[in-house]
Amino acid sequence: xxxxxxxxxxxxxxxxxxxxxxxxxxxxxxxxxxxxxxxxxxxxxxxxxxxxxxxxxxxxxxxxxxxxxxxxxxxxxxxxxxxxxxxxxxxxxxxxxxxxxxxxxxxxxxxxxxxxxxxxxxxxxxxxxxxxxxxxxxxxxxxxxxxxxxxxxxxxxxxxxxxxxxxxxxxxxxxxxxxxxxxxxxxxxxxxxxxxxxxxxxxxxxxxxxxxxxxxxxxxxxxxxx
Length: 226
Description:
- By secondary structure, the chain is mainly alpha-helical.
- It has one domain (15-222).
- The protein is built from nine helices and no strands.
- The protein has helices at residues 2-33, 41-54, 70-82, 86-111, 114-127, 140-155, 162-177, 188-206, 213-222.
- The longest helix has 32 residues, at 2-33.
- The N and C termini lie far apart (47 Å).
């Protein structure tokens, strides 16, 4: 009986993995199908600034804006690797999106479990490609999510050394480089991420590293909102 239950559970997990693979495959197929779409307004701005950087011209010398240069640098890197075209830019977006999906899976799996990780990764894959959020365009939101999610994942590791805290603080600082406004926090993802990371780091320092970041994050998530 125990063996049958174990086989049944393994079968259920396999079904969840297959479902996740199908969802990601469909999303990747959609993104590949739209690789050659023209650049959207913000994409054109970022691509131009990134192109200038590839030519050795620093930000804000010829192109002026009230945005931080992080997304310009990301575009410059993507165009340096995949070419200065809309296809190359959207291919870079595809890779960043896949990496974000993987990190979402790791976070949810560590906090809740395997099935939750699969569900979270599949949900993020679908929602991040939605036309309602302009998911097919390589906006700053996609790039700011990478250090945000990676910083959260770092906080889930047992933080017994100052190195892990330094890594998380550094990732939180990187978020500001991708923020679209130089004087105000206007993106909700960045608004929530920076103070959240800072609060977690303070908690970790208060407990002196005796408890894991995973337990602290779980308590904060489970705590009722005022």
